[in-house]
Write a structure and sequence with these properties.
The complex is a heterodimer of chains A (297) and B (331). In chain A, helix 5 packs across helix 7, helix 7 packs antiparallel against helix 10 and helix 8 packs antiparallel against helix 9. In chain A, strand 1 and strand 2 form a beta hairpin. Chain A has two domains: 38 residues; 252 residues, Orthogonal Bundle (MetI-like fold), CATH 1.10.3720. Chain A has 297 residues and is mostly helical. In chain A, strands 1-2 form a two-stranded antiparallel sheet. Chain A is 73% helix and 1% strand. Chain A contains 13 helices and two strands. With 331 residues, chain B is mainly alpha-helical. The interface between A and B is large, with 96 and 96 residues.
Chain lengths: 297, 331
């Protein structure tokens, strides 16, 4: 009897362990299939030509597969959106964790969650039909579908990520630190800036990197709003074509297992490695610079 | 707990504020103080005021940023409702698109989105819940746990379009499922796995350890404890996680573009191997590649309104439910 119970125990334990590795398995499979379908493009172009070639004309004859403009577009859109999203996200987090009364926080937190839940295609659609004409009118730019518009929409997609992780980090700063600072005569703001924020900086940094990583990989917004021109942008009001937009827009037309198809998968590899890089950095920061004492996350 | 703590510090601070001011004022006119010390006191008062002013200014900026986020949400919802409500009618919800998608309804898209969402959650729920059980109940801190967590975090960060590529290469081509509900649901399931794991783990964490200890103390094994005590207690929270995963899957576009959704198919799906229409993809197609982009604007708004009603509705249910659960577990 006891023997049977123990063996069930062992079986269950092994079973749950196996299932828990599913995420790693999926991640691994994603890598395998991306590389399997993407690497053949390098029979045609060199890695250097692919990454730094400035012409992306996949359908002309002979085709040009240089994704440099796409990489620059992705980075530019992400950088501009980070400039908008980081201050807004972190300040909102501080407000919710430190300043807002319980009732106000209970109203705002679901709002941030709902903002995160908005489907990306709806945000893209909004940027296309409402924000783009507005920008065109107000700023007098050639097209409202441009880098800035896409960055603005992306910012509101990464704010919830930044906000909710930062908020957890700020909240887990032990009260003793705050009380110590206040007791020394610091104002609440000084306490916040000199004590609470430094104590939670690893969590805030993690949130920022994850937010940025979300912006790099977001597809529908840049597909619908960024304008789609595969050029290196010279101003933030230029239309651009970030990597995810290129993949999503062209995959349907790319001939199955033709060079264009391989090139799009290879672009997927680059995109995947970008976000993998960001996520690993975020993970290193979160574990290595872990908050200490009561604040351990 | 948290807010009561916070309130105390804020109250303490608020009390300390005026008191301090009174003290400086009292010290401001000491009967025998010399000129120098009065100047020092005046500077101190001025500095104090400056500090208080800076704090006020900065805190209003913080409040403003929270308000901006709320405004963004409301503006988006406002425009979708204002421009979309006119398109909503019984025909719109119950008919298939007609005349190369310039007229008619969106029934196939609604059905498709629901099928994909439910399919995704049928894939993600069992794996997600079992993973969460391992992470929260069995795993001990160490290299194995760290590796699994790293895997989950990185999976959560994979761009949606890369999931689309993966689904295309693996499910559609390699496993020869073709563009189908099955391929789409599996792709979406893989994508929502981290969300489901994260939120179900929360639910398991919320079960007090005393429950486990009581069960183990009565001689139950670990598995019996999980199955009879932890799981039933955490079940509502687990279901909340399921709803959140479902809503996430239903709103995604990029993963289904190459795996399940097509521009147009007038019939409702017959089997899990049929290709289908879906709300998010329909919006994208009508808004960017339709035959008459401007003329079908009302249809686009209407479809977007239906989609956000579905997605935000599910989220709202989950949020409210979760808030009630938290109260109950605390009380």
């Amino acid at each position: 009897m006891a023997g049977k119970r123990q063996s069930t125990e062992k079986v269950m334990r092994t079973f749950f362990f196996c299932v828990a590795t599913a995420s790693i398995a999926v991640l691994f499979m994603i890598m395998v299939f991306l590389f399997m379908e993407g690497l053949p493009v390098f029979n045609m172009v060199s890695v250097k030509e692919f990454l730094f070639g400035v012409y992306w004309y996949p359908t002309s004859d002979p085709p040009d597969f240089g994704i440099y403009p796409l990489i620059v577009a992705s980075l530019a859109v992400t950088a501009v959106s980070a400039v908008i999203a980081i201050p807004l996200g972190v300040m909102t987090a501080i407000y919710l964790a430190e300043l807002a009364s319980k009732r106000v926080a209970e109203i705002f937190k679901p709002i941030v969650e709902l903002l995160a839940a908005l489907p990306s295609v709806v945000i893209g659609f909004f940027g296309m039909v409402i924000v783009a004409p507005f920008l065109q009118q107000v700023l007098g730019v050639a097209t409202g579908l441009n880098l800035f518009n896409a960055a603005l929409m992306l910012a509101f997609m990464s704010i919830p990520t930044i906000c909710s992780i930062s908020e957890d980090a700020i909240y887990s700063v032990p009260n003793a630190l705050r009380e110590g600072s206040l007791a020394l005569g610091a104002t609440q703001w000084e306490t916040l800036w000199r004590v609470v924020v430094p104590a939670s900086i690893s969590g805030i940094a993690t949130s920022v990197i994850l937010g940025i990583s979300r912006a790099v990989g977001e597809t529908m917004v840049v597909l619908m709003v960024a304008g789609g021109a595969a050029m290196v942008p010279s101003s933030i009001f230029d239309p651009v074509r970030p990597m995810p937009a290129s993949i999503a827009a062209e995959m349907a037309e790319a001939p199955f297992r033709g060079d264009h198809y391989y090139a799009l998968f290879a672009t997927g590899i680059v995109l995947f490695l970008f976000t993998l890089f960001f996520n690993i950095i975020a993970d290193i920061i979160a574990t290595r610079y872990r908050q200490v004492g009561e604040a351990s996350l | 707990m948290r807010n009561s703590k916070m309130d105390i510090t804020q109250e303490e601070y608020a009390e300390a504020g005026p008191e301090k001011e009174q003290k400086t004022q009292a010290a401001d006119r000491p009967p025998k103080a010399g000129r120098t010390s009065s100047i020092i006191h005046q500077t101190a008062v001025r500095k104090q005021r400056r500090r208080r002013f800076i704090q006020k200014a900065i805190f209003s900026v913080f409040r403003l940023s929270a308000v901006i986020n709320a405004l963004a949400l409301f503006i988006i919802i406002y425009f979708m409702v204002k421009n979309g409500i006119g398109a909503i009618s019984w025909e719109f919800l119950s008919e298939a698109p007609r005349d190369s998608m310039t007229k008619g309804g969106i029934l196939p898209c609604i059905v498709g989105t629901i099928l994909l969402g439910v399919g995704a959650i049928l894939v993600a729920m069992p794996i997600g819940v079992a993973s969460a059980i391992y992470l929260n109940e069995y795993a001990r801190p160490g290299k194995v746990l760290r590796t699994i967590r790293l895997g989950i975090n990185n999976l959560a960060g994979v761009p949606s379009v890369v999931f689309g590529l993966f689904g295309l290469a693996f499910f559609v081509i390699y496993l020869d499922m073709g563009v189908s509900i099955l391929a789409g649901a599996l792709t979406l399931g893989a994508m929502s796995l981290p969300v489901v794991i994260g939120s179900t783990e929360e639910a398991f964490k919320a079960v007090p350890d005393t429950y486990r200890e009581a069960s183990l103390g009565l001689g139950a094994t670990k598995w019996q404890t999980i199955y009879r005590v932890v799981l039933p207690t955490a079940l509502p929270g687990v279901l909340t996680g399921g709803i959140l995963g479902l809503s996430r899957a239903a709103g995604e576009t990029a993963p289904i573009m190459f795996t399940a959704a097509v521009f147009f198919t007038p019939d409702l799906p017959e089997s899990i191997f049929s290709e289908i229409m879906a709300l998010p993809y329909h919006i994208y197609v009508l808004a960017t590649a339709g035959t008459e982009i401007e003329a079908t604007r009302p249809l686009q708004y209407g479809t977007a309104l239906v989609l956000i009603t579905l997605v935000l509705g599910m989220n709202l249910i989950a949020i409210i439910w979760r808030a009630r659960l938290r109260k109950r577990l605390k009380g």
